[in-house]
Design goal:
Blueprint (H helix, E strand, L loop, with lengths): L1 E5 L3 E4 L6 H7 L7 E5 L2 E3 L10 E6 L5
Parallel strand pairs: 1-5
Antiparallel strand pairs: 1-2, 3-4, 3-5
């Protein structure tokens, strides 16, 4: 699957993952620190992924 990391703009190809939580673990990203988006759909950690998916990981930024 193709993964786009934003705001860095990096693109990666990742194979062998079946769920969002597996993808985040593979990329060493803590759950809750990114939004995982497929098309216009926000995905949860247990959402299933397909090898043909294009996924965006968007950093969560908060402030006051």
């Amino acid at each position: 699957m193709r993964v786009c990391l934003n705001p860095q703009g990096r693109r990666l190809d990742v194979d062998g993952v079946s769920r969002v939580q597996d993808l985040l673990r593979r990329l060493d990203i803590l759950p809750g620190t990114v939004l995982v988006i497929r098309g216009d759909q926000l995905l949860t950690d247990d959402a299933r992924l397909d090898a043909s998916d294009e996924i965006e990981l968007r950093s969560v930024v908060s402030g006051g």
